[in-house]
Specification:
Layout: H1 5-11, H2 18-38, H3 47-57, E1 64-70, E2 76-84, H4 94-103, E3 108-114, H5 124-137, E4 143-151, E5 154-157
Parallel strand pairs: 3-4
Antiparallel strand pairs: 1-2, 1-3, 4-5
Helix pairs in contact: 1-2, 2-3
GO molecular function, one term: metal ion binding
Protein name: MPN domain-containing protein
Domain MPN: 37-164
Length: 164
């Protein structure tokens, strides 16, 4: 599931078409996974949610920040790419995140970003910026429910670690 479509296609010998079926099957699976996430309560610990998150970051070689927004009851509203970075850093302003929540009438946010390095551990900067964002967002009625870091098959959840 993690291989980019081009990498799958390159495995096929000339004249073979099996790779097209595999790519199509994967696309259908991911559409179903996204549909399931979009119709459920936001739960950053849910295995399906985490699998969907992994699918959003598959094959990326630069860091990106994704926001998954929910209403006051924690139901999914939308997701949005909030920032694009380099190989080892991504920065998003608190204003961008809070404004996106206001625009969507969201009351809860799960943030996720990737570490292309393969190390899913939260850096001191990741922790500090998330805590600062939480302290800015909370008085405005927006709850930062989790900040998840993905690296290869590994996940670090700040909520699971007790940071949020």
């Amino acid at each position: 599931m993690a291989a980019p479509s081009l990498a799958i296609s390159e495995c096929a010998k000339p004249g073979e078409t099996w790779h097209e079926s595999l790519i199509s099957t994967r696309a259908l699976f991911l559409m179903g996974l996204e549909a399931g996430v979009s119709r459920s309560n936001l739960d950053s610990g849910d295995a399906r949610f985490r699998l969907w998150l992994k699918s959003q970051f598959t094959g990326l070689v630069e860091e990106r920040l994704l926001g998954v927004f929910g209403d006051g009851a924690g139901r999914f509203i939308a997701y949005k790419w909030l920032a694009f970075g380099g190989e080892s850093m991504v920065q998003a302003s608190a204003r961008t995140i809070v404004q996106s929540a206001f625009d969507l009438k969201a009351r809860s946010v799960i943030l996720a970003h990737n570490h292309p390095s393969g190390n899913a551990s939260a850096s001191e900067d990741d922790i500090r910026s998330t805590i600062n964002l939480q302290s800015l967002a909370r008085p405005l009625g927006i709850e930062i429910r989790d900040h998840i870091i993905l690296a290869d098959a590994n996940i670090c959840s700040m909520a699971d670690r007790g940071i949020l």
